[in-house]
Design brief:
Radius of gyration: 25 Å
Shape: globular
Number of strands: 18
Strand content: 5-15%
Largest sheet: 10 strands, mixed
Structural class: alpha+beta
Strand order of the largest sheet: 1-5-4-6-7-16-9-14-3-2
């Protein structure tokens, strides 16, 4: 009862009172230890190296086996890189050599990458042979087995009448590895209970770092424009999508037959920042993947982020667009004044703008800014999402953009960022000046989140099974000056129009957009062109005191190409890294140092 009363006092909480509560272990903000309570143990019995010596007295094995396991585990990262060059039969043979290789050869990412490379080779075959390809759909995952290894075996046995029993992991004793246990921890970290609290509980706390939540019945167009879009501040429009047909028809597992019917014959692209290639899924196959046991989902699950599913006048488009016009007229592309100015370019010619998003629990996007200096709205249809925002010009801890914002070095997965940088994030929540302070919120099904241009944001799916959302990027009068500057000065960073034949290409986009605005909104154009400088710190920001305190980066991250269908920016080339211990680890972003490889990230758990 005492704890309950003290928590109730935070309906008008100050930062000082929150910090005191944190020190007294009252559950206002999650600690990094809250994430470490893993949902499931490692399926192959791997434990952190800190457990090796306390347990060694009660565990005896053959000396040769122990010696080989010890030597391999000391070079676990090198071992994993070597194994990544093996094919399926080689991995199966090596898994029989010793207990360490048994666990190492069954790492989920190894078998996932084998499947993705097989699909890529089938795609090349299809492209080379066109409609004459023997199995034109071999490059699409039609169905998923319980694990990536089982899926690989199924692909290798296509056309065969023999059946194979599914793989059952064996938890072997005596295997210790910080590297592999870290991967498992990032796959199965615990979702803090504070993120799952009902909306009314979160509102009562009224925390100063919470994204404002306004019921959609109270959000007028004038209020939205003045208080949020023109101010460039995020907001949750509470339950604005709750009565959309999409929410009524897509929001439960019982409705999946409707989605299967509407998506029949189509395949969808799913990507991951930690995967070497993308994959094409049918909806039934991706649904199966999202329902896998958490122990066999990889660290960064493949995230369906498809630009083709919601084409105008399609059945799925009709499930949300007419209702959007009624519930949120300030996002109605047909309203006057028009808010979606890229629509002037024509549907097929404009950059990609509307996506269907699906993913399993713990999937999501690492920190990024939305493309082309656009605003966005994101409607949660099924499942809850945790949002973490950082203001323009103040990158999150562990995120190091280049001076021109063309590239960024950062951890590749949500879990890795949490384990490395959560304490610094909490410190920023409590102590950063207001203009630098991050914001957080949980979007519940039916909520629509406004994402202002230039804000860094991370999104984490919180619920089991299939999480579904719709997102749309747009240009309005409020961000038009920065969009024009972006199109004119950063053509190499323009995305969403390079891989479609009918789209306006980056070097033509600025001039074509100018001509369209002259015909339809010439006064807006003149006002936007009269703005001499960037009005958003994301592209014109001096170094903040918080950023200076973190020091310079000393590591180099190789550039990774970014999907045209993803809103995440390209990973960095030649990024400096922080001299502090936590920011010196860049989460397998292919980092190279001038002298030595970075230290591995490890836990010191004991059981």
């Amino acid at each position: 009862m005492v704890v309950t009363k003290k928590r109730a006092r935070f309906d008008t909480a100050s930062l000082d009172s929150i910090e005191k509560a944190q020190k007294r272990r009252l559950p206002i903000l999650p600690d990094v230890e809250d994430f470490m309570a893993l949902e499931v143990p490692h399926p192959y019995g791997i434990l952190p190296c800190g457990n090796q010596f306390p347990l060694s007295s009660s565990f005896s094995v053959n000396g040769v086996v122990l010696a080989s396991t010890f030597l391999l585990s000391r070079h676990e990262e090198v071992c994993h890189q070597i194994l990544s060059f093996c094919d399926g039969p080689d991995l199966a043979r090596l898994a029989q050599c010793c207990r360490f290789l048994y666990a190492a050869c069954h790492q989920l990412e190894l078998w996932r990458d084998l499947v993705l490379r097989y699909l890529a080779s089938a795609q090349v075959n299809k492209d080379n042979h066109g409609s004459d390809a023997r199995n034109i759909k071999d490059y699409v995952l039609q169905t998923m087995q319980p694990t990536w290894k089982d899926t690989y075996v199924q692909l290798m046995k296509r056309g065969s009448s023999t059946t194979t029993a599914p793989h059952v992991p064996i938890a072997v004793p005596g295997v210790y590895s910080d590297y592999y246990y870290r991967l498992h921890s990032c796959r199965t970290f615990c979702i803090p209970k504070q993120w799952l609290e009902p909306q009314d509980v979160q509102k009562k706390k009224n925390l100063p770092f919470s994204v404002p939540c306004i019921p959609f019945s109270e959000m007028t167009a004038r209020r939205f424009y003045n208080d949020f879009e023109n101010a460039n501040c995020p907001v949750v429009v509470g339950q604005a999508a709750s009565q959309w047909q999409a929410s009524l028809k897509w929001n439960t597992e019982d409705n999946d037959s409707y989605l299967m019917q509407q998506m029949d014959g189509h395949d969808f692209r799913a990507t991951s920042g930690a995967a070497p290639l993308s994959a094409q899924f049918t909806f039934p196959a991706y649904r199966q993947y999202c329902h896998w046991d958490p122990a066999v989902l990889e660290e960064a699950p493949l995230y369906l982020f498809d630009r083709t599913a919601l084409q105008p006048n399609s059945r799925l488009w009709k499930d949300f667009h007419p209702d959007l016009q009624l519930a949120c007229p300030y996002w109605d592309s047909t309203a006057c004044p028009q808010h979606d100015l890229f629509a002037l370019l024509g549907e097929g010619r404009r950059p990609d703008h509307t996506w269907l998003i699906m993913g399993p629990k713990r999937s999501g996007s690492v920190f990024h800014m939305d493309p082309n200096a656009t605003h966005a709205w994101n409607a949660a249809i099924r499942g809850r999402k945790r949002w973490i925002f950082y203001p323009p010009g103040f990158p999150p801890p562990g995120v190091h953009p280049s001076a021109d914002a063309d590239s960024v070095a950062l951890p590749l997965t949500v879990g890795e960022w949490i384990f490395q940088f959560w304490p610094e994030h909490v410190d920023r929540l409590l102590h950063a000046p207001q203009e630098e302070r991050p914001l957080e919120c949980t979007a519940f099904p039916g909520d629509v989140v406004f994402v202002p241009h230039g804000w860094w944001h991370m999104v984490i799916n919180l619920d089991e099974g299939l999480n579904i959302a719709i997102t749309h990027n747009y240009v309005s009068q409020s961000n038009l000056p920065n969009v024009l500057k972006f199109l004119n000065e950063k053509q190499d960073q323009i995305s969403g129009c390079r891989d479609r034949v009918e789209s306006i290409k980056p070097h033509e986009l600025y001039d074509t957009f100018i001509k369209s605005l002259q015909q339809h909104h010439n006064s807006w154009l003149e006002e936007a062109l009269a703005v001499p400088q960037w009005t958003c710190r994301a592209w014109n920001a001096p170094t903040s005191p918080t950023t200076r305190a973190r020091g310079k980066v000393s590591q180099v991250a190789k550039r990774r190409n970014c999907s045209e269908q993803s809103t995440a920016p390209t990973l960095a080339s030649e990024q400096p890294s922080s001299s502090t211990s936590n920011t010196s680890i860049m989460a397998r972003a292919k980092l190279v140092t001038e002298k030595d490889e970075p230290n591995s990230f490890s836990f010191s758990f004991s059981f």
